[in-house]
Design a protein that fits this description.
10 helices; 12% strand; 5-stranded parallel beta sheet; 3-stranded antiparallel beta sheet; Rossmann fold; elongated; 286 residues; single chain; 8 strands; alpha/beta
C-alpha cells in the first residue's frame, strides 16, 4: 500500500470542539433593607444614675362617711302642762321640726295618703291606732330633708311599747334618743289651766278665762266669733284624761330614767323661767 493510501486510510484525530464562552451573569442588585419595625434600643444608663424606687407606703383604710348624729328630743308631760308651748319655742330657736302625732294624723288624713287611709280605718271604727302604724307615720316624717339636723317629738311615744319600737327603728339608722324632757305640775293646776281654755267655734283661736281672756267675754278677738269651753275641757273630763295618762304614759318616766335620758321640769312656774332651764339642758347635751 502506498504511503499516500495509508495516509488516507488512517483515522483523523477528532477536532476539539470549542464550547461557547459563558454568558456574563449580571450581579443581583442588593435588596433594600426593610424599614425598622422595632423600637430603638434603650439608651444605656450608667448604674450610678439609676435611682432606687421609693417603697410604697400602706394607705389607711377609709371608712364610709356616716351622717352627722341628729339631735332627737322627746317632750313628755300630761295634757295641759305646757310641753307643746315649750317644744314650739325650742323648735323655733334651734330651727328644728316640731313633730306631734296629732299633726301627723291630720296631715295624712287631709292628703289622703296610704298611711292616712290606714289610720282612718281604725279611727272611724273607734279603735286606737296600732303602735306599728304610729311608728310608721313617725319614721316617714323624720326621713324628710328638714329633719337632717334633728327634730322634736311632742307627746310621742305615749307607751313603753311605742318607746321600744322607736328605739329599735332609730337603732337601724344608727341613731338614738338624745334626751327626754318631762314637764309636770300638780293635777289641780293642770285642771285649772285646761278648764279655763276657751276656743272660737269659727276660727279655732284659743284664749283663757283667767290668764288670757278676750276683750269681750265669749267673743273671739280674732274674728268676732263665739268663744266657749269645749266639752272635753270641762273639769271632770280633764281629771279623767289625767287618770288615763298616768296609767298609760306614766310608766315612761321610770323607763327613761333607767336609761339616763330623763330631764324633769316643774311646769307650774312661769313659761319663760321654764324655757331658760330647758335651753340650759339642751346646751349641756352638746
Amino acid at each position: 500500500m502506498s504511503p499516500k493510501a495509508a495516509t488516507k486510510s488512517a483515522p483523523r484525530k477528532a477536532a476539539r470542539r470549542k464550547l461557547p464562552a459563558p454568558k456574563a451573569v449580571k450581579p443581583v442588585a442588593a435588596r433594600k433593607a426593610p424599614r425598622a419595625t422595632l423600637r430603638a434600643e434603650p439608651v444605656y444608663v450608667e448604674p450610678t444614675a439609676i435611682r432606687p424606687m421609693a417603697t410604697p407606703q400602706p394607705q389607711p383604710i377609709v371608712e364610709p362617711a356616716r351622717p352627722e348624729r341628729r339631735l332627737v328630743l322627746v317632750f313628755m308631760g300630761p295634757p295641759g302642762v305646757g310641753k307643746g308651748t315649750q317644744a314650739a319655742k325650742l323648735a323655733s330657736d334651734l330651727m328644728l321640726p316640731h313633730i306631734s302625732t296629732g299633726d301627723l294624723f291630720r296631715d295624712h288624713l287631709k292628703r289622703d295618703t296610704p298611711l292616712g287611709q290606714k289610720a282612718k280605718g281604725f279611727m272611724n271604727s273607734g279603735q286606737l291606732v296600732p303602735d306599728e302604724l304610729v311608728i310608721e307615720l313617725v319614721m316617714d316624717r323624720i326621713a324628710a330633708d328638714d329633719c337632717r339636723g334633728g327634730y322634736i317629738l311632742d307627746g310621742f311615744p305615749r307607751t313603753t311599747p311605742q318607746a321600744d319600737r322607736l328605739a329599735q327603728a332609730l337603732a337601724v339608722r344608727g341613731e338614738r334618743v338624745s334626751a327626754v324632757f318631762y314637764f309636770d305640775a300638780p293635777r289641780e293646776v293642770i285642771v285649772e289651766r285646761i278648764s279655763g281654755r276657751r276656743t272660737c267655734r269659727a276660727c279655732g283661736a284659743v284664749s283663757h278665762a283667767v290668764y288670757a281672756p278676750t276683750r269681750t267675754q265669749g267673743v273671739c278677738d280674732v274674728c268676732g266669733g263665739e268663744s266657749s269651753q269645749r266639752p272635753d275641757d270641762e273639769p271632770e273630763k280633764v281629771r279623767q284624761r289625767l287618770t288615763v295618762y298616768d296609767s298609760s304614759t306614766g310608766p315612761l318616766v321610770p323607763y327613761y330614767q333607767q336609761r339616763g335620758l330623763l330631764r324633769e321640769f316643774d311646769a307650774a312656774g312661769a313659761v319663760e323661767d321654764i324655757y331658760q332651764g330647758l335651753k340650759m339642758a339642751v346646751q349641756a347635751l352638746a
